[in-house]
């Protein structure tokens, strides 16, 4: 599992940071699946795709820099994965206080 390095929360947003290590992809995919994100998108998150868009392995996370992947859940929650030089940030924005929901999922998929 990937360890949470920093946490910042308020009633409408949670921000988590992680060291940028290859194991991040697996934890992120599990987190997305538990949010009932589109299974194909969750399964392929961080994967290299061939011409037919079939997964052929994980992307090298250390080569991804200054990149943001923004998603929206069916409940309207905005999820941003931001890839910086040495860290990955997960920013979750929601319309009402859902810290407990996300804290449980983070604890399940990340340390």
Write up this protein.
The chain is α+β, with helices and mostly antiparallel strands and 111 residues long. The chain contains three helices and seven strands. The strands form two sheets. It has a five-stranded antiparallel β-sheet, with no helix packed on it. It is globular. The mean pLDDT is 90.
Largest sheet: 5 strands, antiparallel
SS class: alpha+beta
Strand element count: 7
Mean pLDDT: 90
Helix count?
3
How would you write the strand order of the largest sheet?
1-2-7-6-5
Tags for this model:
alpha+beta, about 110 residues, five-stranded antiparallel β-sheet, 7 strands, two-stranded antiparallel ribbon, 3 helices
Write the layout of secondary structure elements.
Blueprint: E1 4-10, E2 13-19, H1 24-34, H2 39-44, E3 47-49, E4 55-58, E5 67-72, E6 78-83, E7 87-93, H3 99-109
Antiparallel strand pairs: 1-2, 2-7, 3-4, 5-6, 6-7
């Amino acid at each position: 599992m990937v360890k949470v390095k920093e946490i910042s929360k308020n009633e409408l947003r949670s921000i988590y940071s992680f060291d940028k290590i290859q194991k991040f992809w697996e934890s992120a995919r599990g987190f997305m699946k538990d949010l009932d994100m589109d299974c194909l998108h969750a399964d392929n998150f961080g994967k290299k795709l061939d011409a037919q868009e079939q997964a052929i392995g994980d992307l090298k996370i250390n080569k991804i820099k200054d990149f943001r992947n923004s998603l929206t859940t069916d409940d309207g929650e905005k999820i941003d994965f931001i890839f910086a030089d040495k860290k990955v940030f997960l920013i979750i924005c929601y319309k009402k206080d859902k810290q407990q929901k996300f804290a449980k999922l983070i604890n399940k998929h990340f340390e």
